[in-house]
């Protein structure tokens, strides 16, 4: 689960930046992380509700924000 997040962030925060064709790959890795988080950690039970953080869902907004605003260092 965390490796999907690490692989996505390695591409996002490279010193040379990210190209437009790489964005779908990063988006797929971030979606995989969120899916695995909700499947393995949260598991959809009320007992684990404190683990269901809005910050995890906010990870999905990174790539659309980069498409709208440009590279992370520019915004």
Commentary on this structure:
This protein has 75 residues and is mostly helical. It has a domain at 1-12 and 20-47. Helices cover 59% and strands 0% of the residues. The protein contains four helices and no strands. Helix 1 (2-12) packs antiparallel against helix 2 (23-42). The longest helix is centred in the middle third of the chain and has 20 residues, at 23-42. The termini are far apart. 8% of the residues are buried.
| Shape assignment | elongated
Total of DSSP H or I helical runs spanning 4+ residues: 4
Ends apart, CA distance between termini: 28 Å
Strand content: under 5%
Number of strands: 0
Radius of gyration: 14 Å
Helix content: 55-70%
Reported for the largest beta sheet, the result is: none
Spans where pLDDT lies below 50 across 5 or more residues: none
Quaternary state of the chains: single chain
> What structural class should be given to the helix and strand makeup?
mainly alpha
Task: Quote the average pLDDT.
Answer: 79
Q: In sequence order, what are the helices and strands, one letter per element? A: HHHH
């Amino acid at each position: 689960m965390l490796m999907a997040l690490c692989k996505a962030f390695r591409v996002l925060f490279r010193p040379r930046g990210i190209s437009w064709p790489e964005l779908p790959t990063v988006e797929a890795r971030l979606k995989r992380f969120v899916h695995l988080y909700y499947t393995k950690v949260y598991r959809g039970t009320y007992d684990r509700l404190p683990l269901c953080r809005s910050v995890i869902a906010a990870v999905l907004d990174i790539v659309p924000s980069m498409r709208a605003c440009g590279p992370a260092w520019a915004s």
